[in-house]
Amino acid sequence: MTMEKIINKLKEKFAGSILDVTEFRGETTVKVKPEIIVEFSSFLKYDSELKFELLEDLTAIDWAERKNRFSVIYHIFSIPNSLRIRIEVPLGTADNLDSVSGIWKTANWHERETYDMYGITFNNHPDLRRMYMPEEFEYHPLRKDFPLMGIPGSLPLPKK
Amino acid sequence: MERLKKEDAHPKILQALLDAETEVISDDVLDNEMILNMGPQHPATHGVLRLLLRLDGETVIACVPELGYLHRGYEKMAENMNYLDYIPHTDRLDYLSPPANNVAYALAVEKLAGIEAPPRAQYIRMMMCELSRIASHMVAIGALAMDVGALTVFLWTLREREKILDLYDHICGARFTTSYTRIGGLAQDVEEKTLKEVRDFVSQYDEKLDEIERLLNGNRIFLERLEGVGVISYDQAIDWGLTGPSLRGSGVNFDLRKATPYMFYSEMDFNVPVYKEGDSLARYFVRADETRESVKIIHQILDKMPRGEVMLNAPKKVLPRKVEIYSRMEELIHDFMLVNYGINPPEGQIYFAAENPKGELGFYIVSKGEGHPWKLKIRSPSMVNLQSLPVLVKGHMVSDVVAIIGSLDPVMGEADK
Question: Which among B408, B151, B111, B139 has a CA at the least distance from the CA of B283?
Answer without folding.
Answer: B408
